[in-house]
């Protein structure tokens, strides 16, 4: 039996915000209206859905937001939506507003919630990967990653200026939770001397040897990019050990949430816009549940089951690359 055609689309953001979410929201709303559908914004993610914070959006509600970081719809991590009762409330709220499909911009945890929602209530859902971490299985890209990396690169370039003026070693901690992606890209693009991967044994001897070799050949600064892992502060542990066991003092700079804000880059605007369009088109064509993804460089769609795991493998080859290029 052909799926029932949809007449309206609700959109929400879930989990940590990321630059480019507004581009996707704009594309969803305008594509929906262009297709003759009604568009609704859900404020504060799944929590707002449970609490009935749903409002109609028109063409001008998403005007002048393509260049803005964050999300005009705000976001949250909702405990209520994790419960059967919470999801039932959410479904009832959507029905009350005659919203008959839902687009979720977020990470893999948010996608797991969307899948459950579809299984329990049959509401057509589509996911758009949005997180600076680029840690979702099944897609090469998540919206916000490029901007976050660029922000971190600019910060490390500045740190390099002062580090070399003072003959210093810096540990610069980047976001990404348990994913090495931001750390690897930032390290390669800033000429950093080393990377500390999340949840892996730190190779203190190799790091110390590399710094000392650099000093011996007249290098006047070293930058080590530290992936935050389970939470901010890993750099302090590394700092203590380098000082105590190798007599190498180092400064710490934790970049933190600076990486999550600011105007989206070209890539985040472009991919965000394309994924927003494709999510609505797929729902409108009766293709759901699915997630918009990037594969082999193309924006396409994939089943939810492909996109609910973490992509956390740290490729050791990048470590070799970083060390060789900063020899
Ligand atoms: O959105 C992903 C992320 O920024 C991670 O890189 C980071 O570990 C985490 O969110 C921080 O979350 P929050 O400060 O929103 O609790």
Spatially, the strands of the biggest sheet line up as 3-2-1-4-5-10-11
- CATH top level class name of the largest domain: Alpha Beta
Radius of gyration, CA atoms, in whole angstroms: 22 Å
Structure ligands: 6-O-phosphono-beta-D-fructofuranose
Largest sheet: 7 strands, mixed
- How many E strands? 11
Sum up the overall morphology in one term: elongated
**What is the residue-mean pLDDT, rounded to a whole number?**
96
Number of domains: 2
Strand content: 15-25%
- Tally of helical runs: 10
Topology:
Elements: E1 8-13, H1 21-34, E2 38-42, H2 45-50, E3 54-57, H3 84-96, E4 102-106, H4 108-121, E5 125-129, H5 145-165, E6 169-174, H6 181-190, E7 194-196, H7 204-216, E8 222-227, H8 234-246, E9 251-254, H9 266-284, E10 290-295, E11 298-302, H10 316-325
Parallel strand pairs: 1-2, 1-4, 4-5, 5-10, 6-8, 6-9, 7-8
Antiparallel strand pairs: 2-3, 10-11
Helix pairs in contact: 1-9, 5-6
This protein binds 6-O-phosphono-beta-D-fructofuranose.
């Amino acid at each position: 039996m052909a799926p029932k055609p949809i007449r309206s689309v609700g959109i929400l953001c879930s989990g940590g915000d990321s630059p480019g979410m507004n581009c996707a929201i704009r594309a969803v709303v305008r594509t929906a209206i262009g297709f003759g559908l009604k568009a609704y914004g859900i404020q504060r993610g799944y929590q707002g859905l449970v609490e009935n914070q749903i409002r109609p959006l028109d063409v001008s509600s998403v005007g002048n937001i393509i260049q803005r970081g964050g999300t005009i719809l705000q976001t949250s991590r909702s405990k209520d939506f994790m419960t059967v009762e919470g999801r039932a409330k959410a479904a009832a709220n959507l029905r009350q507003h005659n919203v008959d499909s839902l687009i979720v911009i977020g990470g893999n945890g948010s996608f797991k919630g969307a899948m459950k929602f579809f299984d329990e209530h049959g509401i057509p859902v589509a996911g758009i990967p949005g997180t600076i971490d680029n840690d979702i299985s099944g897609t090469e890209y998540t919206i916000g990653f490029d901007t976050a990396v660029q922000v971190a690169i600019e910060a490390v370039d500045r740190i390099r200026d002062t580090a070399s003026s003072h003959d210093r070693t810096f540990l610069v901690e980047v976001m990404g939770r348990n994913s090495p992606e931001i750390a690897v890209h930032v390290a390669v693009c800033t000429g950093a001397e080393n990377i500390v991967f999340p949840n892996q044994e730190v190779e203190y001897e190799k790091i110390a040897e590399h710094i000392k070799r650099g000093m011996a050949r007249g290098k006047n600064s070293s930058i080590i990019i530290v992936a935050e892992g389970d939470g901010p502060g890993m750099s302090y542990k590394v700092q203590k050990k380098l000082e105590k066991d190798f007599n190498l003092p180092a400064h710490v700079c934790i970049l933190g949430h600076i990486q999550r804000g600011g105007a989206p880059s070209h890539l985040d605007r472009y991919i965000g816009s394309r994924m927003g369009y494709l999510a609505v088109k797929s729902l409108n064509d009766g293709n759901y549940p699915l997630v918009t993804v990037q594969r082999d460089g193309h924006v396409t769609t994939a089943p939810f089951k492909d996109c609910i795991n973490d992509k956390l493998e740290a490729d050791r080859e990048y470590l070799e690359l970083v060390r060789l290029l900063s020899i």
